[in-house]
Amino acid sequence: MAAVLESLLREEVSVAAVVRWIARSTQGSKDNPGEAAALSSLRPLRKEFVPFLLNFLREQSSRVLPQGPPTPAKASGASAALPGRPGGPPRGSRGARSQLFPPTEALSTAAESPVARRGGRRRVPGPARERGGRSLEEGVSVESLPGAGSRRLRGSGSPSRPSLTLSDPPNLSNLEEFPPVGSVPPGPTGTKPSRRINPTPVSEERSLSKPKTCFTSPPISCVPSSQPSALDTRPWGLGLPPGCRSLQEEREMLRKERSKQLQQSPTPTCPTPELGSPLLNWTGGLTDELADPARVSSRQRLELVALVYSSCIAENLVPNLFLELFFVFQLLTARRMVTAKDNDFELSPGALDSLESPLFQSIHDCVFFAVQVLECHFQVLSNLDKGTLKLLAENERLLCFSPALQGRLRAAYEGSVAKVSLVMPPSAQAVSFQPETDNRANFSSDRAFHTFKKQRDVFYEVLREWEDHHEEAGWDFEKGLGSRIRAMMGQLSAACSHSHFVRLFQKQLLQMCQSPGGAGGTVLGEAPDVLSMLGADKLGRLWRLQERLVTPQSSGGPCPPPTFPGCQGFFRDFILSASSFQFNQHLMDSLSLKIRELNGLTLPQHEPSDEDGESDVDWQGERRQFAVVLLSLRLLAKFLGFVAFLPYRGPEPPPTGELQDSILALRSQVPPVLDVRTLLQRGLQARRAVLTVPWLVEFLSFADHVVPLLDYYQGIFTLLLRLHRSLVLSQENERKMCFLNKLLLLAVLGWLFQIPTVPEDLFFLEEGPSDAFEMDIVAPEHGLDSMPVVDQQLLYTCCPYIGELRKLLALWVSGSSGRSGGFVRKITPTTTTTSSLGAQPPQTSQGLQAQLAQAFFHNQPPSLRRTVEFVAERIGSNCVKHIKATLVADLVRQVESLLQEQLVTQGEEGGDPAQLLEILYSRLCPHGAQALALGREFCQRKSPGAVRALLPEETPAAVLSSAENIAVGLATEKACAWLSANITALIRREVKAAVSRTLRAQGPEPAARGERRGCSRACEHHAPLPSHLISEIKDVLSLAVGPRDSDEGVSPEHLEQLVCQLGQTLQCRQFLCPPAEQHLAKCSVELASFLVADQIPILGPPAQHRLERGQARRLLHMLLSLWKEHFQGPVPLQLLLSPRNVGLLADTRPREWDLLLFLLRELVEKGLMGRMEIEACLGSLHQAQWPRDFAEELATLSNLLLAEPHLPEPQLRACELVQSNRGTVLAQS
Amino acid sequence: MILTKAQYDEIAQCLVSVPPTRQSLRKLKQRFPSQSQATLLSIFSQEYQKHIKRTHAKHHTSEAIESYYQRYLNGVAKNGAAPVLLDLANEVDYAPSLMARLILERFLQEHEETPPSKSVINSMLRDPSQIPDGVLANQVYQCIVNDCCYGPLVDCIKHAIGHEHEVMLRDMLLEKNLSFLDEDQLRAKGYDKTPDFILQVPVAVEGHIIHWIESKASFGDECSHHAYLHDQFWSYWNRFGPGLVIYWYGFIQELDCNRERGILLKACFPTNIVTLCHSVA
Asked: How far apart are CA A50 and CA A214, in angstroms?
């Protein structure tokens, strides 16, 4: 590989030829024969060139630039399968022409964690031999020097390598100590120094093995220790040590390790910031070196390499565009060079055109190179967010090295509207209850309905508890909530309940994790990104502050692992804790369905609009809609991937060999949970990659190790790789994909290619010239891909790691304190509108009318179409509701009256209810036919008005009337389709409900609510409250019953007032409910009984403890009239003659019967009780056990009363009717 | 009537082992003249119910029942007109109505062939005239009218109070022109949980959005509030979003801590209601 590079440097071949050579398997016709010859001899190495180049650059920079975080990368191909250790720069084989396979070192990845790896994979050190055999022992030697990282030179014996003194500034390329911005080793073991102390040794053979296969990306904070190996000491490390074997072994080892770690934390947690001290060290002792264009050492060579590198990036030959940019930014912001004390590099002039000498010999070289590369990628840069652009444009190095580029960036900044704002976390809102889907009718049984009711509440209870506690230290989801969740899931017995619960779960997921503003990425609980909130001038202060903080600012690095940030964590943990296969299955079903639905959504398509301004407004809406759909899809797909691959992810390393084969054989039988391959193919064909690919990437990011080996998924990866290759940003093609759309796809695909489970070799091994990616795109000329649906906000939301670029630049600013502020003043951004023109694809198979309608919309503003569709949709739906409320309600009323008739004619029984129902159905269902006619009429009547109201006044009459007609047609179609399918069932259901209602009312509670009168019109509802009265009467009753204190009693006035109030309350019905009235009735009867028995203690002088007879009569009179006139419910007057109440009289001495007689007479007179009734009551009284004399008196009373003529005879006095021996008392009346 | 926890505790302290009688209430009112009677009664009632819940089990052991029944029989044998049952209840610190139920049940077990059903007992308690034994009927009736915390009469009063406050709330909503769906309408639509009122258009009270209003004609103490939160308020939130609870007889101030989360407490109908403006300007 180095051979190619060297050919280049010697100008034997042109850059263009090299790039063509790399990119395509066949040689282009443009290559001149000499070049072709030179390159064709190297053909077998073609695939290994890019990884070699990337590793070479990493290696070079890490050697010369021990500053800042190294760029994580996944190197491949020719390079070794090793984690590059920050401190111990990897050795590679020397890139001599004869050296086809640069040896690599094998390093232990023992302590790696997935996050660390992802955060900072380095290209594998392939070449870079200059330090020869040192690398491995370095890490070990440095252990004794905490804080010093793995300085290269300590203890190693290579004479040729530059050495560092101990007083050197800390080696910032030591990722252990100085992890890159945002890269955070996960978990408690994240950055433990113990890793340095306990290196896992790797056998020498292995470490020298031949890099036959692709590399394994080194982790960002990998172990700086490894075995010392005897490598040659030449700067580019030519000599392969003996015993160099296949890399396979170490790859396997690495894989095992990696998978182990991955499986241990299948869902890596949010990175915990651990950057503080390194940063502190970093800035603490360093002053930035000034970069000077005049001091660049070998311009030509740098230019050439930069050009090749840029071309590789431009051609998408590198796996991850943004990772390379990150690397370049690192070079640009390199702070300081490690001083090479014993400068071994006495560079001969000849060395300059070879790889013999280090590429970057100074900061100047680095910056020069970086600027060279950036110049080639201005277009990408100009599409970054405004904050990044500002920082770039203000970068004085850039100004110094390329004023032209700086000028363009500044202009881009000023023209940019791409402000990516921080979106505040949405607050948790519950999924609202919707009767249409949530009421009893949607459940198989009452039990299921009520169980689900409880589950909904438990679910939110758990969610609230999580919100309260999940940020507390020591709180554990499983411990805190696990058993409750499982208990709840255990109740979901019916399959239908599962689907209800899953619907709730999914809705809540979308609601909480995808804010309406379209910022699905920002979520609850995520620490806001302070760096991007602060202006550059504040950063210096932040910097100083950060030095004192234990947990500094961080994020996931440029290649964060898939995570569940914020409240997504709740849903993930819920799934894990529930561990219910039914739930998971239903969830997958539901997620798949929703994904299909959203993926297939006809997103409003852009149509050329010459109307001023309107297109802008519409575009806002359409972008927003696209963003919402895309973010929802990504969220759903992420969870689908998580659940679908959950059973296949375990702590054990991925299987190999035969075991793997058998697993593959087995797994290939399993149909995919969702046919993503077909969806991808269709998406590509329909030019909707911009919608489909981002969610597919989320789905695949959770795949287990076996997945990429399955034929089915291999097909997907092949498609994705081809797509990736085809997304050449510089090819601006009007009819192809928009720039930002491409950028989004490149970002997400690049991210996917860094996922540990995705095989490293996948990317570089893929054969397939980009030209071949001309999918048989037959379908639309203008799919979603060609529309500017992606904006920076969406790009950054989907790929927050792009923000790492800005952080790098911001750190540069903050590091160089004193350089604050910037030249850039606030400038009102101007809007740039991009519009791609295109025609609406005609939709077939909908009949001529439909095509005409389509055509009609074609040349109208998109808002017109949306309006018409909206109106049709709503009117159609309203129509159905209206029919329910009118026609069906009328039918139900008919049913009720029919039923009454039936009940009257057939007597109480009313016949068999089922039969009755059938009769009713047969009579009523034919009326359903009217529904269609009514529906048509309704749509006809309502739609035009709505369309008119919603369209602009100025809409031409013809357009308006067409729009109205289409709306009427669509609404009618919708309504009639529903009605014809459902009206009969609806009528049956409603009739059934009405019948059971009527029968119930007929049953146990006959005519309870007969006719009830309300208050009179003039009533102001000031009457005493029923509760107050019951309570007052109860007090009187309790006094009467006793026990009571001697001073307790009621005044006659109070009694009278009470009865008056009772009258008022009964006349004002406002607050009176039937139970209260019943109790009032009963209490009043009890009160009357106590009055009759003269048992109410009256306040006053001791002599008058009794109520005067006249007063008692008056009170009884009042009560009688209340009973007669004001009670609307039944009054239990028979209680007056209950043994208990009559027995009250037995205790009095002398007994006084006159009031009772009076009362009974009045009852009869007022028609409140019949004689017969009274007779029956008195009759039953005789059965009770009474004192003998009392029984006699009672018999007399009864005889008296019953002997009276039927007509009331007022002159007939009770006393006369009582026998003389007992008559004394009655004489008073 | 919003009490601090400390104020509430002071009142509750005075209620320990006080029988639920007319006399006790009168004393309580004298002790805390500044509190409204309704609030005091509500607090008393709730505290007493808590007390009964704690001690309920010990009165329901067969030994206890047997001993109560024997004491009752002995008592009425001596003097059927004396408040035997009521005194017994007060003596053993149990609610008179519940004691009446206990003895009635025991009595019926002895006198009927089949064990009495719950509905028969309830019916007899509602109307003691149905009790076959005249003396027991009087004793039971005396217990019921003298119990201010339990019994059919008290239940009816509580129900009536609840209903009255709902009606008042409805009137206030109508007066403010706030359109709403009431419990019956919601039930008819098939809602599984129904607050008293759901506002068709949400309003804001003291800066908080309100979708529903629940009326509680009681004092909001910790115990009842937590039960309501669990059974009702959070359920409403889970379905309809944030809402307002009115404890007409006041509540413990410290309980109003879920405002931010969507449950606002008030002791009266809110005065400053912000509604959605429909003005075109």
From this structure: 12
Of A453, A1071, A1185, the CB nearest to B193: A453
User: Is A1035 in Cβ contact with B129 (below 8 Å)?
Assistant: no
Number of domains in chain B: 3
- Please say whether the beta carbons of A20 and A28 come within 8 A: yes
Which residue shows structure tokens 């003529």? A1205
A1143 touches B at CB < 8 Å: yes
Distance CA A1067, CA A1023 (A): 8
In a domain, B243, yes or no: yes
Is A1211's Cβ below 8 Å from some Cβ in B? Answer: no
Residues B160 and B269 grouped into a single domain: yes
A460 vs B164, B171, B234: nearest CB:
B234
CA-based nearest residue in chain A for residue B41: A1031
Does the CB of A433 have a partner CB in chain B at under 8 Å? yes
Q: Please give the Cα distance from A921 to A924 (Å, whole number).
A: 5
Q: Are residues B188 and B82 in the same domain?
A: no
On whether the pTM is more than 0.95, the answer is no
The ipTM estimated for the assembled molecules is 0.92
CA neighbours closer than 13 Å in the CB half-sphere of residue A864: 24
What span, in angstroms and rounded, lies between the C-alpha atoms of B209 and A589? 36
User: Which residues pair with residue B3 across a beta bridge?
Assistant: B252
The pLDDT tens digits for A700-759 are 999 888 888 888 998 899 888 888 888 887 776 656 778 888 889 999 998 998 888 887
User: What is the span of the domain harbouring residue B40?
Assistant: 2-56
Q: Last residue of some domain: B11, B29, B56?
A: B56
Distance from C-alpha of A493 to C-alpha of A475, rounded to nearest angstrom: 30
- Read off the pLDDT band of B164 (50, 70, 90): very high
Confidence (pLDDT) at B65: 93
Residue B175 lies in a domain: yes
| DSSP assigned state of A239 | P
- Give CA–CA dist B245/B259, Å, rounded: 11
State which of B103, B118, B150 marks the end of a domain: B150
Highest mean pLDDT among A112-126, A463-477, A902-916: A463-477
- Domain shared by B49 and B72, yes or no: no
Residue A1032 sits at the chain B interface (C-beta within 8 Å): no
Locate A984 and state its tokens. 């009969």
Q: Pairing state of beta strands B273-274 and B197-205?
A: antiparallel
pLDDT at A97 over 70: no
Interchain contact A1035–B (C-beta under 8 A): yes
CA distance A819 to A200: 44
- A364-410: pLDDT as tens digits: 888 888 888 888 888 888 888 888 888 888 888 888 888 888 888 88
Does residue B78 sit in the same domain as residue B52?
no
Read off the DSSP letter of residue A613.
Answer: T
Asked whether the beta carbons of residue A1045 and residue B23 sit closer than 8 angstroms, the reply is yes
Mean pLDDT (chain A) is 68
Residue A89: CB partners within 8 Å, gap ≥ 6?
A59, A62, A63, A125, A128, A131, A135, A152
Dig out the tokens for B43 from the structure: 């607090």
Question: Closest Cα to residue A591, out of A543, A555, A642?
Answer: A642
Whether B106 and B167 map to the same domain: the answer is no
Q: Which residue of A has its CA nearest to B164?
A: A1071
CA dihedral A616, A620, A621, A623 (to 10 degrees): 120
Yes or no: say if A962 and A991 are a contact pair by the CB < 8 Å rule. no
* Cβ pair B230:A461 closer than 8 A: yes
Does B142 score more than 90 pLDDT? Answer: yes
Q: Nearest chain A residue to B154 by CA: give it.
A: A1031
Cα-Cα end-to-end distance for chain A: 132
Q: For residue B235, list chain A residues with Cβ-Cβ distance below 8 A.
A: 453, 456-457
CA–CA separation, A944 and A928 (whole Å): 26
